[in-house]
C-alpha cells in the first residue's frame, strides 16, 4: 500500500490554494505509507531525452522536472521552502511509500525516474510476467515499481503498447506518470484493486488521490471547493493534457485488469484503508477485474513421521 496524490493546475489561477491543497494531500497520504515520500514537480515542458538511471539522490533536476524525495513521512521530506517550486509547477506527482518489494532505500523511493518516465505506483505486482513478456534491462533497485515502469518506458510513449503493458500486469496497481516523449501529458492508470480517484475544483485545478476522503479534508484546509469527484474504474488509462494551460481529459482507454487471489483477499485491508463506507461502496461499483486462480496445492497427505505410542 502506498499513497498517490498530485495536481494538474489551471495556470490562469492564483496557485496558492492548489499548492496548499497538494501539500495537505501529501500529509493525508502518510496514512498509506511512511517509509518514504516524494514529489516530482514540472519545471518546463521539454522533449530533451535524458537517459539517466533511477536516481538515489534526494533532490534532482533533470529533463524539465525536479524530484524531491527522502525517507520517512511526507512532512519530514517536504519543507515549506519548496512551496515556491510547487507554485510555479503546472503539474506535481506525489507519493508516500509503504514498501512491499525492495528495501526502504532511497533508490526504491518514488517518484522514480525510469528511462523517459517519472512515475508513482500504489500496489504490488508480480514482476516475472513483465520480465518474461518484455525484455527489460537489469533494474537498479529492488522494487516492483521500477520493473513496471521499465516495461511502460519500453512501450515508447505509444498508446497501444502502453495498454499492452497495463494488460500484462498481474497484481495491484494504480499508476500516475509522465513521459518526456509526451511532454504535456499526465497519465493516470488503474489496473486491479489499488484505488485511484480524481477531483476537479471550482477553479479548474485537477487533483488525484488514493483515497477520495482526502479531497474533502484537504479542501477544508486549503479553502478549496471541490466540484466533482470521480473514482477511476479498474482497467482504465486516462490522459490529461495541460498544454493549453489548464487540465483537459484527452483520452480514456479501457483494458482488462488482472489480480491475484491474494489481491482480492487484501482489498479490504490494504486498498481501502482509511476509506469511508460510502467511498468504498462507490469504488466497488467501478471494480471489474479478472482474478487468476491460485496454483492448486497437492492433495496428497504426507505419511506421519511418528507412530503413536499406543501403536494405533
Ligand atoms: N505498497 C505500495 O504500494 C508500494 C509500491 C511498491 N510495491 C513498492 O514496494 O515500492
Automatic annotation (TrEMBL):
It comes from the Bacteria. It catalyses: D-fructose 6-phosphate + L-glutamine = D-glucosamine 6-phosphate + L-glutamate. CDD domains: Gn_AT_II. The keyword Transcription regulation does not apply. Residues 2-243 form the Glutamine amidotransferase type-2 domain. Transmembrane segments: none annotated. Its EC number is 2.6.1.16. Keywords: Glutamine amidotransferase, Transferase. InterPro entries: GATase_2_dom (IPR017932), Ntn_hydrolases_N (IPR029055). This is glutamine--fructose-6-phosphate transaminase (isomerizing). It comes from Streptomyces lancefieldiae.
